[in-house]
Design goal:
- By secondary structure, the chain is mainly α.
- About 65% of the residues lie in helices and about 0% in strands.
- It has six helices and no strands.
- Helix 1 (about 1-25) runs antiparallel to helix 2 (about 50-80), helix 1 packs antiparallel against helix 6 (about 170-200) and helix 2 (about 50-80) runs antiparallel to helix 3.
- The longest helix is centred in the first third of the chain and has 30 residues, at about 50-80.
């Protein structure tokens, strides 16, 4: 299935596109405080060029949706765990859907809250590790993904106010930190799976029910 490789490449492109979009939108927003303000405000009415952020999120989100399908297929072939692989792909796709919602429903539209489904990236590393656990050739990615899941979980806990580490002046940094770590994992995992898909298509195990 040659198209799976292309879908996985979208998984590498999606994080780059999202980070670049936020960086550019922020550069074009004089006085924007990345610590005290949320990322979504880059596409709100106070932004001088909200279309930059919103259009970028829509395009990156659409790419993320397709990348989720690539993850599901590649993990299923690599690990033989069909249902777990499908869920891993679903969490990746929901991350793309969250970005798409962020661009379509501009802050402070009440529907903008739907972008919260993008937090599903939290579970993608866990299910990826599960899908690949014990499979030759994918041990490093499985162990890396499991460790990354616990790291993301810690950052999410701090973001939501656990231990009172977060303050009102740095919530934006915590939000960016969690998003960046999730996207960084996505890019690395997609790149690793795409390499495996290209290098050893004949050795990948068949799926089981």
């Amino acid at each position: 299935m040659a198209s799976v490789g292309a879908l996985l490449k979208l998984g590498v492109i999606t994080p780059v596109a999202m980070v670049a979009d936020v960086w550019l939108a922020q550069k074009l927003f004089p006085g924007f405080d990345p610590g005290a303000q949320f990322i979504s405000e880059l596409g709100g009415p106070a932004a001088p060029t909200p279309e930059i952020f919103n259009l970028g999120m829509m395009l990156a989100g659409a790419a993320g949706l397709f990348a989720g399908a690539g993850f599901a297929h590649a993990l299923e072939k690599a690990g033989g765990r069909r249902q777990v692989s499908a869920f891993a792909g679903l969490w990746v796709a929901m991350t793309g859907l969250g970005a798409l919602f962020a661009g379509v429903f501009h802050w402070p539209d009440p529907m903008h809250r739907a972008c919260g489904v993008g937090l599903a990236i939290q579970f993608a590393p866990l299910f990826t590790a599960w899908a690949l656990w014990g499979k030759p050739g994918y041990r490093r990615l499985a162990h890396f993904s499991l460790g990354w899941f616990f790291g993301l979980l810690l950052v999410l806990a701090l973001l939501t106010g656990v231990w009172n580490v977060r303050t009102g002046n740095d919530v934006g940094f915590w939000q960016r930190g969690h998003a960046f770590l999730g996207l960084l994992w996505l890019g690395i995992a997609a790149w690793s799976l795409e390499r495996g898909w290209r290098a050893k298509p004949a050795e990948l195990e068949p799926a089981t029910a």
